[in-house]
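C-alpha cells please, single chain.
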Amino acid sequence: MNKLQPPSDPQRPASRRDFEIAIMCALVHEADAVEALFDHYWDDDCPPYDKATGDPNAYSIGAIGRHNVVLAWMPAMGKASAAAVAANCRASFPNIRLALVVGVCGVVPINREGQEIILGDVIISDGVVQYDLGRRTLLDSLGRPNMEIRSLLTKLKGFRGRKTLQEKAARYLAVVQQEPGLAAQHPGVENDRVFHATYRHVTDGKLCNECGCNGILVPRSRFNGANPPSPVVHFGLVASSDTVLKSAEDRDATAQQEGVIAFEMESAGVWDIFPCVVIKGACDYADSHKMKAWQKYAAATAAAYMKAFLDSWAPSQLSLPGT
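Here you go.
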C-alpha cells in the first residue's frame, strides 16, 4: 500500500459496471509507471472480473487513491490501436466516464507564450487536433473536453491548483523512482539539448553524442536552477497523428499555425469513444535528434501527474434508481 495515500481506499467494485476511470498506455514502460502508483490491485483478489465476450484487451485492475481504475495495455502504438482498445474497453466496462491517455510525447521547446518546455515536463491536454504531419494539414479539430473536465482543468490552471498539482506529482514521482526495475531516474541535463530547427541529426540510428551532432543549441534558462529541474506541467493543445514527427521545422510550423505544444499518436483514437484527457511526459522535441534515454523518466513524470490529477477528480454522483 502506498503510504502517501490517505486511508480512504475505495471498496472492491461488485462488477465491471462499477468502474468509471480507464487509463490507456501504448508502451510497456508507460503502463509500468502507472502500475507502480496503484494503491491496490483488485487483480490479486478473487473472483476475477473477466471481460466481455470478444474483448481481446489485457487489463490491470485496481485502485489509485479513492478511485477504482482499469488500465488497458495497448498492443501497439497509434490511433487505430487506441481506438480498438477503447472500443473493447467500453464493451467490458460500460460506465467509464473518464479516460486518461498516459505516456510520452514529443514537445515544442518554446510555446507561443515564450515558456520553455524541457524533457520530463508534462503536458495535460485542454484539446486535441488530428493532424496529417506529412502534409502539414489539419484533418479535424476534435473539440474541447466536456464541461466537467474543462471545469477541473480551469481549476488546476490557477495558482493554487497548479502548485498543489506539482507538489503532489513530485511526491508520486519519488515513489515510481523507488522501483529500481523501472529505471526512471532523470538522465541528466547534459542530455537535454535543443538544436536550431534547421540542423538535422547526422546519422540515423545513433545518438547525438555517438554521431557527432554539434549544431548551435537553443539556450535554456530552466537549467540555471535546481539540478535536475523539477518537471513542470503545461496545459495546451495536443496534436495527434498516425506518424512520429521527426522534423523540427514541421514542429515549429504546426505549433505556430495551430498553437499545439505536444505531438503524440493515440489520443485521436480514444477521443470519440470516452471523455478524455491526455497526460504525457516530454521525451523528445519532435525533431530528428530523438533519444529513447528519456522515455522511462518521461513515462514516470506522466504517471505522477496522472495520480495528482486523479486526486482532484471528483465526478458528480450518478442518480440511482428511485432517487
